[in-house]
Structures are given as C-alpha cells and as structure tokens.
Amino acid sequence: QVQLAESGGGLVQPGGSLTLSCSASGSITLINVMGWYRQAPGKQRDLVAANTRTGSVNYADSVKGRFTVFRDNAKKPVYLQKNSLKPEDKPYYFCYVTGIISEGVFHGSPSWGQGTQVPVPS
C-alpha cells in the first residue's frame, strides 16, 4: 500500500509563487507516473501536471509556462513549482501516483494524497 503526503500549501497573493511537494511511502519498488490534480469546491478534479519516470512531462494548457513539475528519480518526492498564480487557479491540489510496482505486484490504479490548499485571493 502506498501513502502520499503533500506539503507546502498556503495563501498566496496574485502573481506570487509557491512550491508543493509530495512524498510517497510504503513498500515501493518503482513509480511510473507522479503528478498533480486540482479542484475547486463543487467542481471536478482536473489534471495539472504529470511526470513519468522516463522524464516525459504533461501540463494542462492553463498552467503551461507558469507551473513546473519535477522529480529526481522514480521514487523520490515530486514537486510542483507554481509561478504567477492567479485567483482563477483552483485552490485544492492533490498529489497522485500510478503505475506502481510494490512487493512484486503492478498496480495500475492511482493512489491519491489528502490534498493541500493554495488559495489565491482576488
């Protein structure tokens, strides 16, 4: 079983920057994809950025050029550096992982963190 723990959230003024981190723990041999989703109250959860262990990165159009997702290797924390934050940026961020090998078994379903808040007042 994988546990995810996010940190780094907090109130940010428009135009400000913040970096979130997410650590995975448990009996993990390899994690294929680590990334971030975000959500506004009452809205669906949308992909922000994802990073594969081979270095491929995917961003939502709304964050391209402002956000950067990075990780050191297949098992270390994943980070989301956010610049030029806007009030319309959804405030709840969730770390996720998928494509995990744990105790010799491949797990294709995603695991989620509890979420962290990054409100940007208007």
Overview in brief:
The protein has 122 residues and is mainly beta. It has no helices and 11 strands.
* Quaternary structure annotation: single chain
Gyration radius, in Å:
14 Å
Order of helices and strands: EEEEEEEEEEE
Q: State the end-to-end CA separation.
A: 40 Å
Class by helix and strand content?
A: mainly beta
* SS field, number of helical segments: 0
Low-confidence segments, given as residue ranges, are none
Strand composition percent: over 45%
Question: For the report, how would you describe the main beta sheet?
Answer: 7 strands, antiparallel
Output mean pLDDT: 93
Tell me the total number of β-strands. 11
Shape: elongated
Task: Tell me roughly what share of residues is in helical segments.
Answer: under 10%
Write the layout of secondary structure elements.
Elements: E1 3-7, E2 18-25, E3 30-39, E4 46-52, E5 57-59, E6 67-71, E7 78-82, E8 92-102, E9 105-107, E10 111-112, E11 116-117
Antiparallel strand pairs: 1-2, 2-7, 3-4, 3-8, 4-5, 6-7, 8-9, 8-10, 8-11
Structural summary, described in words:
The chain has 122 residues and is mainly β. The chain is 0% helix and 50% strand. The chain has no helices and eleven strands. It has strands at 3-7, 18-25, 30-39, 46-52, 57-59, 67-71, 78-82, 92-102, 105-107, 111-112, 116-117. Strands 3, 4, 5, 8, 9, 10 and 11 form a seven-stranded antiparallel β-sheet that branches. A four-stranded antiparallel β-sheet has the order 1-2-7-6, with no helix packed on it. A hairpin with a 6-residue loop joins strand 6 and strand 7. 26% of the residues are buried.
